[in-house]
Design a protein that fits this description.
The chain is 24% helix and 26% strand. The protein is α+β, with helices and mostly antiparallel strands and 457 residues long. A 7-stranded antiparallel β-sheet has the order 2-1-6-7-8-9-10. The protein has a 6-stranded mixed β-sheet with strand order 11-16-17-5-18-19. Helix 3 crosses helix 4. The longest helix is centred in the N-terminal third of the chain and has 17 residues.
């Protein structure tokens, strides 16, 4: 579980902003708190704020840094990612730090990047022992002369492990290659080792934790459709939830179709090339395709032939089923969010930008209430941005689960918890928020349409 995340010099976040999932002393909604290691951590956080305040940039900061951590800096676009209002910030480093608990062990992982050099300047991974002392698993930094250094505080009883670690870190030392300047130690070692033993278990666990993060933006589409079509338990769960949330869907079905029919409206030569390419890609895995505004999932069957399946929705007429594109925008959006409620989904954290987009206020409330009914220990953490002020209700959330982002005079974003304010009697805080008591709301300057004054007036 995530303890906290810090960021500076990324998009609208100029100075360091700190976000925490640590639970406060509130007596409200104790079932919203899970124990991980020695920490009491929140299962959920919602972030509110005015348009262009920086809410989405928080989600993007996690997604951006995660891509660099897992795949290297070349896999993330650095153009315009610094705080652009101050042009000098292009030459300042971008900073990202995570604190998390994995298998009851507390870790801290940090990353510093150069936007102008397009390299990783520093990286560190530490863990806390039983007494709370921090142990440096590895530390990498670039000095003022541009020379890279990498070291560890760990000494192992097994000399082979000591030697392997020294060899791995030496690659990130003074003779570091241009390619490794753009890659993290975390991903490099996790990709080299196959076993989970001793020190390497820490690195693989942290790497897997980042790999388990899922990020959903408003334009994210169809991310889990292949799983729905193939996993009967998930398909049944989806159907039940869609019915429960009053989408009109009674159940979801998986229909196997003729693979060749996908290419009916495509020239024969092009169709043959596509078939070969799809067949090669489908080797050993499911792939999702969008063709002719329709959604298909293809895979290789046991006989080696390509099998095409399509997800169909029953709205009460078994003889006339709906396809995915026939559903409303809100229903299609639910297909990406329902995995949050599916207990078998192994995700460390799910982040959703504009979780309330295209949803009725009652629907998003019911969705979140369903999430809180998942037993502690079986659910991942959910962090989302939202606009619907009806969610600002202490009968639904704890005050420390609610965060605000406000745009400052210099156009940088300030992130702060609602728990810094005294809790209101009655629990409803939406009206207090809308009149500006907590900040992070639009501030309109006078009237836009002004009457032209005449001499007579």
């Amino acid at each position: 579980m995530l303890i906290g995340f810090s960021v500076s010099n990324y998009r609208s976040f100029k100075k360091r902003q700190d976000f925490s999932m640590a639970a406060g002393d509130s007596a409200r909604h104790k079932d919203h708190v899970a124990v991980a290691g020695n920490r009491k951590l929140l299962k959920t956080a919602l972030i509110f704020g005015a348009n262009a305040g920086g809410k989405s940039n928080f989600i993007k900061a996690v997604d951006f840094s995660r891509k660099i951590i897992l795949k290297g800096i070349e896999q993330a676009s650095l153009d315009g990612r610094h705080f652009r209002i101050d042009s000098q910030m292009y030459y300042e480093p971008g900073f990202f730090e995570y604190r998390m608990v994995i298998h009851q062990i507390e870790y801290c992982y940090g990353l510093v990047i150069s936007y102008c050099e397009k390299t990783i300047l520093a990286e560190w991974l530490t863990k806390s022992d039983e007494n709370g002392n921090e142990i440096c698993i590895f530390n990498r930094e670039t000095d003022e002369h541009g020379i890279s250094h990498a070291e560890t505080e760990i000494e192992y009883e097994n000399p082979d492990e000591n030697m392997r670690m020294k060899v791995y870190l030496a690659d990130f030392g003074e003779e570091i290659s241009d390619s490794l300047k753009k890659k993290t130690i975390l991903s490099d070692i996790a990709g080299r080792v196959n076993e989970k033993s001793s020190f390497f278990e820490d690195i693989v666990s942290v790497y897997d934790w980042f790999a388990g993060i899922s990020v959903i933006f408003p334009d994210s589409v169809y991310t889990l459709t292949n799983m729905i079509t193939e996993d009967e338990a998930m398909r049944k769960f989806y159907g039940q939830m869609m019915s429960f949330l009053d989408t009109g869907i009674e159940d979801i079905q998986n229909h196997e179709l003729n693979f060749d029919k996908m290419f009916q409206n495509i020239p024969e030569d092009d169709a043959e090339r596509l078939k070969v390419k799809i067949s090669n890609y489908a080797e050993g895995e499911l792939i999702t395709l969008r063709m002719n505004h329709k959604l298909y999932v293809v895979k290789k069957g046991t006989d080696g032939n390509v099998v095409q399946t399509k997800m169909m929705m029953n709205h009460g007429n078994q003889d006339d089923l709906f396809e995915f594109q026939d559903e409303s925008d809100g229903t299609r959006r639910l297909f990406d969010l329902i995995p949050v409620l599916f207990e078998s989904m192994e995700k460390s954290m799910i982040l959703v930008d504009e979780i309330d987009r295209s949803f009725h206020s009652n629907l998003i409330r019911k969705f979140l209430q369903s999430y809180f009914q998942i037993p502690a220990g079986k659910s991942c953490q959910l962090i989302a941005t939202a606009h619907d002020s009806n969610l600002l209700d202490l009968d639904l959330f704890r005050q420390d689960e609610l965060w605000l982002v406000e745009r400052r005079a210099d156009h940088s974003s300030k992130l702060y918890s609602l728990s810094r304010f005294r809790e209101q009697a009655g629990g409803r805080i939406d009206k207090e928020y809308l009149i500006g008591r907590y900040g992070a709301v639009p501030v309109f300057q006078g009237s836009f349409f002004l009457r032209e004054e005449t001499n007579e007036e």
